[in-house]
Amino acid sequence: MAGTTTGIPRDVTQNHVKGGIGESTLRPDGTLKVTGEFAYSSDMWHEDMLWGQVLRSTVAHAEIVSIDTSEALAMDGVYAVMTHEDLPAAKNYGMEFQDTPVLAYGKVRHHGEPVVLVAADHPETARRAAAKVVIEYRELPVITDEASATAPDAILVHEGRDDHHSGHVPHPNIVHRQPIIRGNADEAAKRADVIVKGEYTFGMQDQAFLGPESGLAVPAEDGGVDLYVATQWLHSDLKQIAPCLGLPEEKVRMTMAGVGGAFGGREDISMQILASLLAMRTNKPVKMVYNRYESFFGHVHRHPAKLYYEHGATKDGKLTHMKCKIVLDGGAYASSTASVVGNASSLSVGPYVIDDVEIEAIGLYTNNPPCGAMRGFGAVQACFAYEAQMDKLAAKLGMDPVELRQLNAMEQGTIMPTGQVVDSPAPVAELLRMVKARPMPPERQWETAGEGADVRALPGGLSNTSHGEGVVRGVGYAVGIKNVGFSEGFDDYSTAKIRLEVINGEPVALVHTAMAEVGQGGVTIHAQIARTELGVQQVTIHPADTQVGSAGSTSAGRQTYMTGGAIKNSCGIVREKVLEIGRRKFGSYHPAWANAELLLEGGKVVTDNGEALASIADVLEDQAVEVEEEWRHRPTQAFDLVTGQGDGHVQYAFAAHRAVVEVDTELGLVKVIELACAQDVGKALNPLSVIGQIQGGTTQGLGVAVMEEIIVDPKTAKVRNPSFTDYLIPTILDTPTIPVDYLELADPNAPYGVRGIGEAPTLSSTPAVLAAIRAATGLELNKTPVRPEALTGTL
Hints:
The chain is of the alpha+beta class.
């Protein structure tokens, strides 16, 4: 009978499992992805399925006068055409504010807003049917910037706001305002020998994930729906989807499908509600896949920003004060704008010690495209500005820009402008030293012995625009600070279900979480943690779904910390249960069962000095141990709405970059030769994955520095470049060598001492590239991205 064995355990020999934490274990999905065999959400198929299509607004701000769907409904193969009048329950959804219509009603507030849904038996039929819908609009003036949004007589993007921020904002078109006041910046400015001011513009960046928004909704016999979708946060989606379908949450069963990148753009709802509505309306499975044009309208983007900064310093370089105002354009709907405002304000000082600050950050409602989460989340825009300020100060003081930064660098024990003490390592000066100490790449790499110029190494590349004439090298540095995890008092937790049992004579662990694997490698880390904590070789990762508790969002650099922490915690409880079973069975045969610290290693129960007592298989036999537990990090606090004071963040991450560029000053072309990074990662659970995350984040920062921007017409608020033809992202030809150095300075408050990795390198890579271009050209360059006309003076 299970659990009652009393015989002496068999002789066992200790061995160690492979693939635990600290090893560069290969990704289980890696080979499938590079060979093209991995199933993404857009690859899903169901017998007798229909295809969904969205008709979007062609104008940015207008009253909807009428919608005529008669011609679309009359087409062969069309099963359903839906407008807001056909919605069964809640008409709005949203992550923080429920201000986003499922389908527009009354009016549209941005270009590309969903208005009509179509389901048909072929995707081309669905597209043609959508094109036959006739919508009459009465256009309204557009709100596109701070001046038009906050004018006393401004048109309100949302009338009658009743959200939790509406009572403290100075204008209804301001989503959220967060001031931070510490010390007295005006008095401190009197001690400054040098003051520099700057106005900076950060362009709207797209996440540009290669896998489009897609999913499959299948109606269920119980009246619910089974939804297979690419997302970043299953349980957040669930809480928004169920009310719009008029269903209890338990009847909306969600399962993660293969995700082709995310970077924040899948944290909000895209097609989840729409596909489910069509499935319930037709009682047939419905698949939706956005094309690239639709994708640019189907998800939020990075907030464009205007940033106004003032810094002062004494003649020996010590910072005296800082003032700034940050204006973030949230677009037509709130998404996560309020949280982005909190991040931008609380991190606006950068990784520096400044006792006297006066900070204000606001997020606007406009008729521009909605903006929300993207890698870096408010800290990216601020870093671009404060690092440009550091270079201005260094130039005015006649100091080395790295030395100025090191002189003012924060360290463990520094008090942030919010009053929070940085209570874990903050090696800002050391990271700067590391990137500066790296050898420089060779000069004039395009020159090859006995041959002509290798144009691939020149600005302009294979377009063969230059053979080296007019090319000037520049070097720039930057460093940034990013929070890790959710902040400002949010109840941030993750859940892990762990099952340990014996299968075919071997102990096997099953790890079940709702973590969204979006390419970051979480499934790899989860298996490594389970092997380490339970001492077993065989680990199975259960598909992520909503049949287990929430794992929170795959964002904010939090998943290894949070879901990794949850797995570690649940594994620890499983381990204790296994040891208790072992003590009951075999305790009388060896005193170590009662007296020693016991571990699970190499499939065995062992003492802390390595003596093996029994195999896990002998302990468990046909008994399984299963635990599902939530795990939380230490609590944070909301920032005070007047002073900005509060312990708002759970952890900070730091990265520094050195950029080496070569600029064709005659044509305005830039070639980034090298973009070296140094970062503190706390503990590298998978060193290869660490390097990949740092290089990926660095490359996204490079993109916004020199090419990436969604261009919105300031007169009409229409998007001008919704395609990869006109919205450019770095390819392998644009991406430079990215050497990486990392420190492992453990955070004592985090599981294994880990520190979030993926976001910090996105911050400092952008200002490092801009600094290098400034060094090569002597131009001020206060806007991203840097375009050729900005370098040639032909704007």
